[in-house]
Amino acid sequence: MPPFFPQGSLAAPPPQTARELELRWAGLRAHNRWLADFCSLSPERRAGVGQILLGDLYEAVTEVAQIAKLGLRGGVLLPGVVPGTGIPALYAEHWEPLWAACEDTGVVVNHHGGNAGPTPTDGWGSSFAVWVYETHWWSHRALWHLIFSGALDRHPDLTVVFTEQSTGWISATLDSLDVAAVRFGRANSAIARFAGPTAGSLPLKPSQYWARQCYAGASFLRPVECAQRHRIGVDRIMWASDYPHLEGTAPYSREALRHTFSDVPADEVAAMVGERGRRLPLRPRGPRTAGRPNRTDRGRSRRAAGGRARRRDQHRLRA
């Protein structure tokens, strides 16, 4: 919030100047330090999620290491990339150091719905309804960006949580992605020429990457979504109340749980309501040292690319 952000960070437009980016970073770093103190008062119950910005790759990677050092067990909040802002899409090789940093430090990546698409500005009453309907789809895109770019394949220990995006989309999307992957990998097919060498040669199906590395933060899971739990993966779903938002279940969370899980076996309910969240790899370990170099430091070309990206991003913000 002001003076660091013009509004809440999830809804704030990208910074337009280097000074604005600097202020936002100052605000997020202060937030992350405060959050670590807050969680330390009840570490068995609180797993804070640190925040970063994507306008400066070097600073983002550095803050991931700091989030691990602070012991923020909830991981890092990955902002959405709004088209047209000049920030590379999540499928770009530009982000390779970020994925490597999160994997190396054990920091879980959280991708929240609501900030990856354009915000309505035309003032029409229907525009907000359209935004509400579309906003989750823009956030869903991170899944196929990370799969078809090969990021999940190259970083098998990277964990990604898609939160507050509902879960009803997951099973149909995985089916669609599996079909696309087969078509991309079919040699000499018409569609394969558009797939590129990475998407066309993935060793696993997209649904297998989901089952290995991805989870759904299922805010106020609905019965119709719960019915798809075996296709999504009971061990991939983490129920949430979305407290304290008005659209959340509080103060009627018990009733909401009964409504959704009344005919679900108790062991499955336990897995989705609490057990899975406790079993996530929420133990950030800090950058690897003592003879095991951090992947973000491997290779002169990667360091040079990161430096070029940083200078390019800063130049873009000053323009």
What key attributes describe this structure?
alpha/beta; 319 residues; Metal_Hydrolase; Amidohydro-rel; TIM Barrel; Amidohydrolase-related domain-containing protein; 13 helices; six-stranded parallel sheet; 8% strand
Give the overall average pLDDT.
86
Q: Briefly, what CATH class?
A: Alpha Beta
The termini sit apart by 24 Å
Range of strand content = 5-15%
CATH-level-2 architecture = Alpha-Beta Barrel
> Are there runs of 5+ residues with pLDDT below 50, and where?
289-319
C-alpha geometry: globular
- Largest sheet, described in full? 6 strands, parallel
Q: Structural class, from helix and strand content?
A: alpha/beta
| Major beta sheet, strand line-up | 1-2-3-4-5-6
- Taking all Cα atoms into account, the compactness measure Rg is 20 Å
GO molecular function, one term: hydrolase activity
Pfam family, one: Amidohydro_2
Region (Disordered): 273-319
GO biological process, one term: secondary metabolic process
